Predict the structure.
Amino acid sequence: MIQIVLDPTTKKSIEQIHWNWFKFRVMQLKFSFFPFPTYYSYIKKHVVFFDSSEKKLSTSQKRRLFYKRLKNLVVGEFSETGENSFIRFINLNGKKKGLEKKRLLIAFGYDDFSMMPGHSKWTTWYNKNKLWYDRFKASNNGEDWNTKVLCEKLGVDVCPYCNRQYIYTYERDNVGKKNTAEIDHFKPKSKYPYFSCSLYNMIPSCGICNSIKRDDDRDIVYPYKESFEKKNILDKNFAFFRMRRKDKVPFKTTNVYRIPKTIKLDVVGSGIPKSRMDNSKEMFALEELYSRHELDLNDLLLRYSLYGKLNIRALSQLLKTPEALIKKVILGIPLQIGTKKEFVLRKFKEDITRQLDEAAEN
Ligand SMILES: [Zn+2]
């Protein structure tokens, strides 16, 4: 689990584009038939979004308040506790039953209009226009803002959940942008339709992670805020890969290249609530999948056992180059860390190397 880090300029720009798209394209979408001229008027009619103390406000004040709350829902810092002011009203509305509840689900964009009783026209209209996420996802939505452009702007090139797959947006002649990333809804859209277009609920991820997560909404590490990474020397909240020999023989760095036959990989941690860490590693099958990276692990161990700590020190003196750098070169660990770009398996390699160094010191 690696963190999605956005620089303030990118963050501001994406929030602005996404909100404008939502405000002007989705909310102002014209309904072609009676009785609602726009999507906004539909929501206004069917969704309660003011509490009793706000009922006396003027129409324009209500409109401003509505957009303020909606903006918070669409581009606000995503809150898993549901403190978002709009969510409060959705929950208020959530107490409704039957037809009212169906209207609410429809108003919040994920479920299709075929659910709408007695409104066969809705289905046709919906299929033509789409709402919320379906509209955002459609590459032919006639707009220059969609999931592919979002992924490109976020610049997340490696799956934050597994750190095993590159997820690129690329251009293809006559076709336009294509994407190897998928958008995972951190809070699944089937259970939380109103978060379907919330910017910080959308996590670019690899198809494998997205497909194994699906509707699972267990408490896991949230990539826009957290990770398994040790962020600085004092950080006590992190998790890491650790090799364990099934035969319980302690590690010796002199024979590490023979270890993989009897190895088991664990994810262990400190600080991150245990349930959250366990949920995260189980949900994405991190231990099981990483255990299949025998080739990568073997290669790393072989490099380490051939060149070891002493040789690295000798080379460092001979070449007058810092030990840490020589070590990375020899072990094939990315050199350009600290840039925004991420490498697959980077954390895995670093964690295993740290363990080998510790074993070498003992
Ligand atoms: Zn993944």
Q: What stands out?
A: The beta strands are 169-172, 176-179, 182-185, 202-205, 238-245, 263-270. The pocket of zinc ion is lined by residues 159, 161-162, 164-165, 205-206, 208-209 (CB under 6 Å). Residues 8-213 form one domain. The mean pLDDT is 80.
